[in-house]
Specification:
By secondary structure, this protein is mainly β. It has no helices and 23 strands.
């Protein structure tokens, strides 16, 4: 399930889940029990596939939903209205062209000079390891350019200044790549490309499909943390990616996942920075049910 809160006079949030529905939840302000608030939800729409991501444009009521296409909505007074669709792959793919069977796997809104840009990455439904990674201009609803990476997308992340984008892709079993792009200069060619450390096999029969769950830049834009599904979080210095990870943080606890084949690794990572000392820490959450804080 994906949940994102809306900061408005009335408290509300949107969510998506395996029911393939986009729901708007609004707090019932007439509820008398503050310890057990009452929420009312409305199904805005249902999709053919479960959305992989939802993201509000900072400081606005624009909502992007990652499904087969990017669905763009406008929120006004707790009403969500369809605004536009962005197609990342062919609108009318041939039934025999399995490369066109894609889902939007990851999105990121721009910032400052790229504030009106929406960065989108796709991943195939079938195991073709081919993806499309594009940038859309929201107001004009046009495609600006496409990144040069041809592989299936894992995740994308944008630094706080909106100038550098990190794209993680998968080209085959145990072949994952990290690229950096100058999106301030609208350059579709990667400025830096490195192969990520291999993923171990957990089961000899099943093999192991390595995946990056989350990529996130530190507040100062220097460090990039990659949360991996092998229980590790690798932290890179973006100025010297070729040196490999500076830090390797591992979740050692026993997995809480019901099946040994359904492994998720480190499912999220977030940077926290003190306003007083500017000290930064990295918080990660793993399939062991633990939160780790790494300084």
């Amino acid at each position: 399930m994906h949940i994102i809160f809306i900061v408005r006079p009335s408290i509300s949030f949107v969510s998506t889940g395996e029911d393939k529905a986009l729901r708007l939840w609004v707090l019932n302000e007439d509820s008398n029990d503050s310890s057990d608030p009452s929420w009312e939800n409305t199904v805005i729409t249902r999709y053919n596939q479960s959305p992989h991501d939802v993201a509000f444009r900072p400081g606005s009521g624009l909502l992007a939903v990652a499904e087969k296409t990017v669905r763009l909505y406008k929120l006004s007074e707790n009403i969500i209205e369809p605004m536009a669709n962005f197609n990342v792959h062919d609108k009318n793919p041939s039934k025999s062209d399995r490369f066109s069977k894609h889902m939007i796997g990851s999105m990121a809104w721009g910032s400052q000079s790229t504030a009106n840009h929406l960065f989108v990455s796709s991943e195939p439904i079938e195991r073709t390891f081919k993806g499309f990674h594009k940038v859309f201009e929201v107001e004009s609803q046009t495609l600006l350019y496409q990144f040069d990476a041809p592989e299936a997308g894992d995740v994308i992340a944008l630094d706080s200044t909106g100038t550098t984008l990190a794209l993680c892709t998968e080209a085959g079993l145990n072949h994952n790549t990290l690229r950096l792009y100058d999106v301030h200069g609208r350059n579709p060619i990667a400025t830096t490309t490195v192969d990520l450390d291999p993923f171990p096999e957990r089961d000899p029969e099943e093999g192991y499909d390595g995946e990056i769950n989350v990529a996130t830049f530190s507040p100062d834009g220097i460090y990039l943390a990659l949360a991996r599904n092998d229980n590790h979080t690798h932290v890179y210095d973006r100025r010297m990616l070729s040196r490999g990870p500076l830090f390797d943080y591992e979740h050692f606890g026993e997995s809480k996942v019901a099946s040994k084949y359904d492994r998720y690794g480190v499912v999220n990572a977030q940077w926290i920075q003190s306003k007083l000392t500017r000290r930064m820490v990295l918080v990660t959450g793993g399939e062991d049910g633990e939160l780790y804080i790494s300084a």
